[in-house]
Amino acid sequence: MTELLTTRYTYVLFAILLVVGLYMVVASSNLVKKIIGLNLFQSAIFLFFVSTAYLREFKGESGQVPIIPKKAAAYDPYASPLPQVIVLTAIVVGVALTAVALALIVRIYGEYGTLDEETLREVRADD
Question: 69 lies in a domain?
């Protein structure tokens, strides 16, 4: 267990962020807290992608740039740029999603005067 925490700490941090973010989305009735939980959940996924793309030393060499020379052996470790590209794209989508969600929350607060989910359901049921 100690070895897991010292060598794979990014996976442990991923699990903690994922659980906390999911709990905030499900258990909170405040809409802003739900958006914060969604951002924590997204950050956990980003951390997972980057952690899985990390190359440890292999036969004395660490991961290299993915430009493969002609004399390279089949087992040489090369870092894949794909996880970083996916994470960068997901960050842009996440920022856009957060901006739209916060804009909707501002409109909801202006219309109903509350950000509590249960109160909003009651007000909408009365309409």
Answer: no
The verdict on residue 117 lying in a domain is yes
Spatial distance between the Cα atoms of 89 and 108, rounded to a whole number of angstroms: 29
The CATH number given to whatever domain includes residue 34 is 1.10.287.3510
What is the CB neighbour count within 10 angstroms for residue 40?
A: 19
DSSP code per residue over 79-94: --SHHHHHHHHHHHHH
Give ∠ CA 42-43-47 in degrees, rounded to 5: 120
Separation of alpha carbons 35 and 80, rounded Å? 31
Instruction: Tally the domains of the chain.
Output: 1
pLDDT tens readout for residues 10-54: 888 999 999 999 999 999 999 999 999 999 999 999 999 888 876
pTM of the model: 0.78
What is the residue type of 45? Answer: I
